[in-house]
């Protein structure tokens, strides 16, 4: 499994409820948390491998209302 935390900035004026619903609809997105600070949302993503993770990250970027993302891949320990 390959996992990542995706820090998301929501576009000003975007419907946060709609963004939340659409993020949960993306395959591989396991959790979605709205947070305070420079990041608006942190999503935890889990996929079978890096190629599948890359596709999921591309899908997240297409969600209407998302302005920018910053991804942290979880390292195996």
Helix content: 25-40%
Distance between the termini: 12 Å
Radius of gyration: 12 Å
Strand order, main sheet: write it out.
Answer: 2-3-1-4
Unreliable segments of 5+ consecutive residues:
none
In DSSP terms (H or I, runs of 4 or more residues), the helix count works out at 2
> What is the helix/strand order?
EHEEHE
Task: Give the overall shape.
Answer: globular
Query: What does the main sheet amount to?
Result: 4 strands, antiparallel
Going by helix content, strand content and strand pairing, the class is: alpha+beta
Mean pLDDT: 96
Q: How many E-type strands?
A: 4
- Fraction of residues in β-strands: 35-45%
Description:
With 77 residues, the chain is α+β, with helices and mostly antiparallel strands. The chain is globular, with a radius of gyration of 12 Å.
Write the SSE topology.
Blueprint: E1 2-10, H1 16-25, E2 29-34, E3 41-47, H2 50-61, E4 66-73
Antiparallel strand pairs: 1-3, 1-4, 2-3
Task: Offer a quick outline of the entry.
With 77 residues, this protein is an alpha+beta fold. Helices cover 29% and strands 39% of the residues. It has two helices and four strands.
Notable traits:
77 residues, alpha+beta, four-stranded antiparallel beta sheet, 2 helices, 4 strands, 39% strand
């Amino acid at each position: 499994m390959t996992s990542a935390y995706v820090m998301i900035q929501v576009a000003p004026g975007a419907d946060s409820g709609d963004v939340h619903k659409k993020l949960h609809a993306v395959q591989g997105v396991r959790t979605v948390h709205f947070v305070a600070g420079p990041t608006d949302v942190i999503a935890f993503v889990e996929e079978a491998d890096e190629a599948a993770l890359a596709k999921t990250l591309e899908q997240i970027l297409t969600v209407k209302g998302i302005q920018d993302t910053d991804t942290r891949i979880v390292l195996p320990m």
